[in-house]
């Protein structure tokens, strides 16, 4: 596994102490249709990041566990349904994981053994609906929680459900306030503002976008939010995908040789000043590592604090609904009986009030 690394020196002349956090971004491919082997690969990469790179935080790409289905068609077209597409979805659903579940327990234990904070992109299944999810783990082996992608992009909406405001966390950890926006959620200004308002300092951006313009978005977010941005994208070749004649990997040319690059990588780490600390890499699977000087956050926000001194709350405001949105809510009989008793008591009080009135 190749490595890109940039170390930020500590300023020994500074009057204020700055905390340095070493972080690694993983740029690697899922092992498609084989979640156990993907977990084994994830563990190898985490061990390498922790032992060789001395990382305290390890961030994986979007959909690493379960796979980002680039080029998969699932037999979909407007008004068209077919059995081959249904069976392809069955396999994809089988690769997804329950949250919580045995794979989550395993990832928590891997984080504990390697003493790292871990942000893992995964495909979550809740019943038969799938969600694109980021999972958060602490070095003591705790599963901190998850973020479900609130807005799948384009054809993703045919295979993934929508997250809601109940899973937009920012965790206050010993290495800083940690959160995530997945892929093109990063293009949603109000979503970013919600994360800024929660004080995000280490902004993780698991993605499937390896385009050059993505780098501009990541730089802008780091500069706008006054936070570190860690963008993790898979690097995949045609040989990493299952063999299937109906896959469409690019709209530029239909190159199907084994060495064809299907997902470009471009993983990168950027400082609150908008400086690229490590990456991007478009050549291979790799670990991208940098030292994050958390003092840079205060330095950046001297001039611009988007939800602080540079906001205009008397003109602009944002309301975020954090209540979970459930399609079905069950009310138990005991609760209904209590409600009925209370209603009857209220009606009785009302009747007494009417009788006693002159």
TrEMBL record:
<dbReference type="Pfam" id="PF00795">
    <property type="entry name" value="CN_hydrolase"/>
</dbReference>
<dbReference type="InterPro" id="IPR044149">
    <property type="entry name" value="Nitrilases_CHs"/>
</dbReference>
<comment type="similarity">
    <text>Belongs to the carbon-nitrogen hydrolase superfamily. Nitrilase family.</text>
</comment>
<dbReference type="GO" id="GO:0051410">
    <property type="term" value="P:detoxification of nitrogen compound"/>
</dbReference>
<dbReference type="GO" id="GO:0018822">
    <property type="term" value="F:nitrile hydratase activity"/>
</dbReference>
<dbReference type="GO" id="GO:0080061">
    <property type="term" value="F:indole-3-acetonitrile nitrilase activity"/>
</dbReference>
<dbReference type="GO" id="GO:0047427">
    <property type="term" value="F:cyanoalanine nitrilase activity"/>
</dbReference>
<protein>
    <recommendedName>
        <fullName>nitrilase</fullName>
        <ecNumber>3.5.5.1</ecNumber>
    </recommendedName>
</protein>
<dbReference type="InterPro" id="IPR000132">
    <property type="entry name" value="Nitrilase/CN_hydratase_CS"/>
</dbReference>
<dbReference type="InterPro" id="IPR036526">
    <property type="entry name" value="C-N_Hydrolase_sf"/>
</dbReference>
<feature type="domain" description="CN hydrolase">
    <location>
        <begin position="21"/>
        <end position="294"/>
    </location>
</feature>
<keyword id="KW-0378">Hydrolase</keyword>
<dbReference type="InterPro" id="IPR003010">
    <property type="entry name" value="C-N_Hydrolase"/>
</dbReference>
<dbReference type="GO" id="GO:0047558">
    <property type="term" value="F:3-cyanoalanine hydratase activity"/>
</dbReference>
């Amino acid at each position: 596994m190749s490595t890109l690394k940039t170390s930020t020196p500590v300023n020994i002349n500074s009057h204020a102490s700055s905390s340095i956090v070493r972080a690694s971004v993983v740029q690697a491919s899922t092992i498609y249709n084989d979640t156990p082997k993907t977990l084994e690969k994830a563990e190898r990469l985490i061990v390498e990041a922790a032992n060789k790179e001395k990382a305290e935080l390890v961030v994986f790409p979007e959909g690493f566990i379960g796979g980002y289905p680039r080029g998969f068609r699932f037999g979909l077209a407007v008004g068209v349904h077919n059995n081959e597409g249904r069976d392809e979805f069955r396999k994809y659903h089988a690769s997804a994981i329950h949250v919580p579940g045995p794979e989550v327990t395993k990832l928590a234990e891997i984080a504990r053994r390697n003493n790292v904070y871990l942000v893992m992109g995964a495909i979550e299944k809740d019943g038969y609906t799938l969600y694109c999810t980021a999972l958060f783990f602490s070095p003591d082996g705790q599963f901190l929680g998850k973020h479900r992608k609130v807005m799948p992009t384009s054809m993703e909406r045919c295979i993934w459900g929508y997250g809601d405001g109940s899973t937009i966390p920012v965790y206050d950890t010993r290495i800083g306030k940690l959160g995530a926006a997945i892929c093109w959620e990063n293009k949603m200004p109000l979503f970013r503002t919600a994360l800024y308002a929660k004080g995000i300092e280490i902004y993780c951006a698991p993605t499937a976008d390896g385009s050059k313009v993505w780098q501009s978005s990541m730089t802008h977010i780091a500069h706008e939010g006054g936070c570190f941005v860690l963008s993790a994208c898979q690097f995949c070749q045609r040989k990493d995908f299952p063999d299937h004649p109906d896959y469409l990997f690019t709209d530029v040319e239909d190159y199907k040789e084994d060495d064809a690059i299907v997902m470009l990588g471009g993983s990168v780490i950027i400082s609150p000043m908008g400086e690229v600390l490590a990456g991007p890499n478009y050549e291979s699977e790799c670990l991208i590592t940098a030292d994050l000087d958390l003092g840079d956050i205060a330095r950046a926000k001297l001039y611009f604090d988007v939800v602080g001194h540079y906001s205009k709350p008397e003109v602009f405001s944002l309301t975020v609904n954090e209540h979970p949105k459930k399609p079905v809510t069950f009310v138990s009989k005991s609760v209904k009986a209590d409600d009925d008793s209370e209603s009857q008591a209220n009606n009785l009080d009302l009747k007494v009030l009417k009788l006693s009135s002159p």
